[in-house]
């Protein structure tokens, strides 16, 4: 039996997290506007998009934009890399610029990441991975955490071993996505397999993969033995959903168009019009797929391809409002 609920606080070293539902770091998704909305609606902890360590040290604009705090605490920065030197230097920069927690990415399955021997590719060489972990921990005084998968493939399930060694090196929390790298996001995450990591470590454990509902979250905790859950794709098109799992109220059908339109305006302010109009399209699509699935294909295409922010906002908002009205009519019937 669990002796806590998802709404209870969690400690990562000296840092207290307000509840046990974490928004996953997702490149191209969990930018500052998304994290701000997720936090406002109750997520216990949000994590930056993956920041490439060497690029941060070399001061690329994208890495610095990803490092930026969303204006609340704790500020958790995820770093990726393949060399201990760059990871340590990047960790120092992140901590000096307000990071309360540094997370090491050893879970990303993307080809462009593993092609550079970063992300989940590090799980193929645990000794090398540990050199990065040790260097990062030694470089900063803030807590260092680690996110990884079960292993590279089904024949190399080494997350328990790496987690144990990471804890010995000073890592203060482990997150496990219940798939191997070779599974990408196919099939179902294996929540039961995460329990072997629970048995190998004493620090807090976060379980990740395929959690959508409160019932899923509790089942994941029960089967994995984890202390908290992380949700990623389940929040696409509903940045408030991590908070819902933690016990916050979900917006009603009439509130959703306002939140979605605000999200779009926040992206315009953050990126500037030229970039935001393109970058926001995937978010618009997720909102429409979730909450206005019956919008005419022609109208959806117009929303997704329009270049004037005022036109996008008006069409997008109207489509969501029409869907809300249809939902209310069906519920009243």
> What is the correct CATH architecture of the largest domain?
Alpha-Beta Barrel
Count of runs of 4 or more consecutive helical residues: 15
**Number of structurally distinct domains:** 2
Helix content: 40-55%
Write down the CATH topology of the largest domain. Answer: TIM Barrel
Shape: globular
**Structure class:** alpha/beta
- Output the strand order for the largest sheet: 4-3-11-10-9-8-7-6-5
H-E order: EEEHEEHHEHEHHEHEHEHEHHHHHH
The CATH homologous superfamily of the largest domain: Aldolase class I
Query: Which percent range describes the beta-strand content?
Result: 5-15%
CATH class of the largest domain: Alpha Beta
Mean model confidence by pLDDT: 94
Distance between the termini: 42 Å
> For the CA atoms, what is the radius of gyration?
20 Å
How is the main sheet built? 9 strands, parallel
Low-confidence stretches: none
Number of strands: 11
Break the fold down into its secondary structure elements and pairings.
Blueprint: E1 10-12, E2 15-17, E3 21-23, H1 32-40, E4 45-46, E5 51-52, H2 53-57, H3 61-67, E6 76-80, H4 84-96, E7 101-106, H5 111-114, H6 126-139, E8 144-149, H7 159-169, E9 174-177, H8 195-200, E10 205-208, H9 214-224, E11 228-231, H10 241-245, H11 256-271, H12 273-279, H13 281-291, H14 297-305, H15 309-332
Helix pairs in contact: 1-11, 4-6, 6-7, 11-12, 11-15, 13-14, 13-15, 14-15
Characteristics:
single chain; about 325 residues; alpha/beta; TIM Barrel; 9-stranded parallel β-sheet
Account of the protein in words:
It is a single chain. It is built from 15 helices and eleven strands. Helix 11 (256-271) packs across helix 12. The chain has helices at 32-40, 53-57, 61-67, 84-96, 111-114, 126-139, 159-169, 195-200, 214-224, 241-245, 256-271, 273-279, 281-291, 297-305, 309-332; strands at residues 10-12, 15-17, 21-23, 45-46, 51-52, 76-80, 101-106, 144-149, 174-177, 205-208, 228-231. 46% of the residues lie in helices and 13% in strands.
């Amino acid at each position: 039996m669990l002796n806590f609920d998802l709404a209870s606080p969690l400690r990562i070293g000296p840092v207290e997290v307000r509840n046990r539902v974490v928004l996953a770091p997702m490149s191209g998704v969990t930018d500052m506007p998304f994290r701000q909305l997720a936090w406002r609606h109750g997520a216990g902890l949000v994590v930056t998009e993956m920041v490439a360590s060497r690029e941060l040290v070399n001061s690329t604009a994208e890495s610095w934009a990803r490092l930026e705090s969303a204006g609340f605490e704790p500020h958790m920065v995820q770093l990726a890399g393949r060399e201990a030197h760059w990871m340590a230097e990047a960790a120092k920069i992140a901590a000096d610029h307000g990071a309360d927690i540094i997370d090491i990415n050893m879970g990303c399955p993307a080809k462009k990441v593993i092609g550079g021997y970063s992300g989940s590719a590090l799980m193929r060489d645990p000794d090398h991975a540990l050199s990065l972990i040790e260097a990062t921990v030694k470089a900063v005084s803030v807590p260092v955490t680690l996110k990884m998968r079960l292993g590279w493939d089904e024949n190399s399930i080494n997350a328990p071993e790496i987690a144990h060694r990471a804890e010995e090196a000073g890592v203060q929390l482990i997150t496990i996505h219940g798939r191997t790298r070779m599974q990408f996001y196919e099939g179902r995450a294996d929540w039961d397999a995460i329990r072997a990591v629970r048995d190998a470590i004493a620090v807090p454990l976060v379980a990740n993969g395929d959690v959508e509902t409160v019932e899923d979250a509790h089942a994941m905790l029960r089967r994995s033995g984890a202390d908290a859950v992380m949700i990623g794709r389940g929040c696409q098109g509903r940045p408030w959903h991590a908070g819902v799992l933690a016990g916050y109220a979900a917006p009603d059908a009439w509130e959703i168009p306002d939140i979605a339109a605000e999200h779009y305006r926040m992206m315009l302010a953050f990126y500037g019009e030229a970039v935001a109009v393109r970058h926001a399209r995937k978010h618009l699509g997720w909102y429409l797929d979730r909450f206005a699935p019956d919008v005419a294909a022609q109208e959806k295409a117009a929303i997704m391809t329009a270049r004037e922010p005022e036109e996008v906002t008006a069409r997008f908002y109207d489509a969501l409002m029409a869907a809300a009205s249809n939902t209310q009519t069906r519920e009243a019937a």
